[in-house]
Design goal:
The chain is α+β, with helices and mostly antiparallel strands. It folds into 2 domains: 92 residues, OB fold (Dihydrolipoamide Acetyltransferase, E2P) (Beta Barrel), CATH 2.40.50.140; 305 residues, Bira Bifunctional Protein, Domain 2 (BirA Bifunctional Protein, domain 2, 2-Layer Sandwich). Helix content is 31%, strand content 26%. It has 14 helices and 18 strands. The longest helix has 22 residues. It is elongated. The two termini are 32 Å apart. The N terminus is likely disordered. The structure holds one RNA strand.
Length: 448
RNA sequence: UGCCUGGUAGCUCAGUGGCAGAGCAGGUGACUGUUAAUCACUUGGUCGCUGGUUCGAUCCCAGCCCGGGCAGCCA
């Protein structure tokens, strides 16, 4: 920071803040994103992590040394640039930088140029270089939106009386007994990476009332789709004295808050990504609610009308094409509730009006994005939960602590989990979750 | 795991049973308003690997390796 110590030196700023310095000379620290040359005119584009700005250097307007330094400069060389901020209608961001001085921090050698050019590349090539790909304008914008989604999600709970209680990542056994878990050697004993913190936060919810957890989750399923990662981030609220209606209200307000925060703070990034902003502006509570039965009727009609290839069999869980079609019928997330208990997890409370149904809800994001939230009211009866554990042939010993929650002061309670990457994919309008996380872990990729 | 699909220059791809191609990137040069700048010239190849058929295989066949898409599972 020696440059800030010099009284006459131009102020250090960022590209995002350039508008505050119009007409002034400033110092930017960043990288050369691209360089266009036109004879005695050079157009270096700089990026600094907050945005990009086009610099202009006339041969007659700068020293010979500065001109020569810029002229041959290679993509992604790191630089400190001094220049005067000028508003210009031709510039995409509204401003340009008339270059005055350039200091090259590290020059990328010509014989080993930066591999990711501003041209088309394939998925595998880019994922193999994810450590560099994150520098690109679009990827950086997605990561900023992701950060805002995570911030706004935590903010919603923090400002509504929730206490964050993070469950362990190393666990002794399966939470639900369904998903495949990653085994870990724990001092000679077998342990697993968590696939959900739900059972643990049911415990802290009965201690603190309203709680949430926020952390990584692991699923060892060999899923190979645009919606799946083996390591993903999930935010899970759990609320004591809450029923299914209360949970759906929580879910819609939570999602609306996140979308509104992203629109308020990261609209420029959404535009870089190419998102249709109007579709996000329509996201406001309340969300439509559909009973499973009503959703099935829609699917049957859709099949008759030729929108779906397979007929839907009543009693099944929805398949991916079913979810896609359902969610595409609404302009905001749709909440499908009361699925048949037989296709849902053992800990879900039966509907008091008809125990064939579970008091659960899936939130399907619009535009065909499908499930982003799954949640339920939990079984609060000791006897029923014990029976369910037996029916599902789960090891009773491992669930004794969980049954304790029904032995000592059991109350109705409910919670849900939202997959961060699926939310990011929807809000950014991406076609694959691998671009929503800095370093995706998928079936075929553990690198870099 | 099942079905579909791909692997040719640094990248994106075309192509043929008989000399290995284009655009871009890299290099050299031109250009005072470019927006993935343009123009001229130019460097660059284990055609995924192994075996088979053939006078001859990048091309046809078999096996293997590595990706991608969809489904299932789920968030």
């Amino acid at each position: 920071m020696s440059e800030t110590a010099l009284p006459s030196a131009p102020p250090v700023t960022t590209i995002a803040e350039l508008g505050k310095h119009e007409g002034q000379s400033v110092l930017l620290r960043g990288w050369l994103y691209n360089l266009r040359e036109s004879g005695k005119l050079l157009f270096p584009i700089f990026r600094d992590g907050t945005g990009t700005i086009q610099g202009v250097a006339h041969k007659a307007g700068v020293s010979a040394e500065v001109f020569e330094t810029l002229k041959g400069l290679t993509q992604e060389s790191s630089v400190k640039v001094t220049g005067k901020v000028r508003a210009d209608k031709r510039a995409p961001g509204g401003y340009e930088l008339d270059v005055e001085q350039v200091e090259v921090v590290q020059r990328v050698p010509e014989e080993d140029p930066y591999p990711i050019t501003p041209k088309d590349h394939g998925v595998d090539f880019l994922m193999e270089r994810r450590h560099l790909w994150v520098r690109s304008t679009r990827q950086a914008a997605i990561l900023r939106v992701r950060a805002e989604i995570m911030r706004a999600a935590a903010e919603y709970f923090d400002t509504n009386g929730f206490t964050r209680t993070d469950p362990p990542i190393l666990t002794p056994a399966a939470c639900e007994g369904t998903s495949t878990l990653f085994p870990v050697d724990y001092f000679g004993e077998e342990a697993f990476l968590t696939q959900s913190g739900q059972l643990y936060i049911e415990s802290t919810a009965l201690a603190l009332g309203k709680v949430y957890s926020f952390g990584p989750t692991f699923r060892a399923e060999k899923s190979k789709t645009r919606r799946h990662l083996t390591e993903f981030w999930m935010i899970e609220p759990e609320v004591a004295f809450c029923d299914l209606d209360g949970l759906m209200e929580l879910a819609e307000n939570f999602i609306a808050h996140i979308v509104q925060s992203v629109l308020a703070k990261r609209k420029a990034d959404l535009l870089v990504i190419g998102r249709d902003i109007a579709k996000l502006e329509a996201i406001a509570a309340p969300f439509p609610r559909l009973r499973y039965d009503a959703a099935v009727e829609m699917l049957n009609q859709a099949f008759k009308d030729g929108h779906l290839e397979q007929p839907f069999e009543y009693g099944n869980d929805f398949g991916s094409p079913d979810e896609t079609w359902l969610s595409s019928q609404f302009d905001r997330p749709v909440m499908v509730h009361r699925y048949p208990a037989a296709v849902k997890a053992f800990y879900m409370q039966p509907d008091p009006e008809n125990p064939q149904f579970a008091m659960c809800v899936d939130v399907l994001a619009p535009e065909g994005y499908g499930e982003i939230i799954g949640g339920s009211q939990r079984v609060d009866s000791y006897d029923l939960l014990k029976n369910r554990i037996e029916e599902h042939k789960l090891p009773m010993d491992a669930f004794q602590w969980y049954l304790d929650l029904r032995r000592y002061g059991s109350v109705p309670h409910a919670g849900f989990g939202m997959g961060i990457e699926r939310a990011v994919a929807w809000i950014c309008g991406l076609d694959h979750v691998r671009e929503t996380i800095p370093f995706a872990r998928t079936l075929n990729r553990m690198f870099p």
